[in-house]
Amino acid sequence: MSTTYAAARNVNQTSSVLDGAGLVGGVDYEKLENARLLSSAEYSVNQALGYVSLNVGINTDQVVAVAYSYTYGGVTYQVGEFAGDRTNVNEALFVKALKNTDNNPSQGNWNLMMKNVYRLGDRVERERLRLDVKYQKQHRWRRLKLYSRTTSAHKAVGKALRSRPIRQ
Questions:
Q1: Any residues with CB less than 8 A from the CB of 78 and at least 6 apart, and which?
Q2: Neighbouring C-alpha atoms within 13 Å toward the C-beta of 95
Q3: Distance CA 13, CA 88 (A)
Q4: pLDDT of the chain along its 168 residues, tens only?
């Protein structure tokens, strides 16, 4: 990618070069001119399971992307580019998108995202826990009651999802 579309490194030409190659902005790539590196307090990495958790909320119009390296079978692989890899700070970096602005389940990176995983804290009382799932369909919010005090959360979630399928 970085050699085939070298002209895309110029942020003034990124969209025209990549669109000209048949890629669609917001779907196949994101062009960011003011991206920032998150502080270590804003995310955590589970190296054993291989996932990144954000400790801050992000808006639907925000993008999350990463660059990382790993070793497998004695060979080191790199995904994306680190800022230190580029000598010209005015050139764009190519990184792996984990969340883009389109937020569409048909996109290739949809399965890479952990969606709606929340830390409940240390003092969750089983008797007082109430779990509601809300989803948006055609700009209307619908609420499904999934948990009551008389059933366990996992049984209630499974039962509610089986009895009321969410269609897209």
A1: 67, 68, 69
A2: 24
A3: 16
A4: 667 788 888 888 889 999 999 988 888 888 888 888 899 999 988 888 888 888 888 888 888 888 889 899 999 999 988 888 888 888 888 888 888 887 777 777 777 776 666 667 777 787 888 777 766 655 554 454 444 444 444 444 444 444 444 443
What are the two backbone dihedrals, phi and then psi, of residue 8, each rounded to the nearest 5 degrees? -70, -10
Q: Is 122 helix (H, G, I), strand (E, B) or coil?
A: coil
Structure token pair of residue 161: 């999802």
Quick check: pTM over 0.70?
no
C-alpha to C-alpha distance for 83 and 101, rounded to whole angstroms = 22
CA distances from 116 to 43, 52, 53, 60 (A): 15, 13, 11, 13
Structure tokens at 133: 């799932």
Q: State both tokens at 151.
A: 């059933």
Where residue 102 falls (left for φ over 0; alpha for ψ -120 to 50; beta otherwise) is alpha
Neighbours of 125 (CB within 10 A): 6
SS3 75: strand
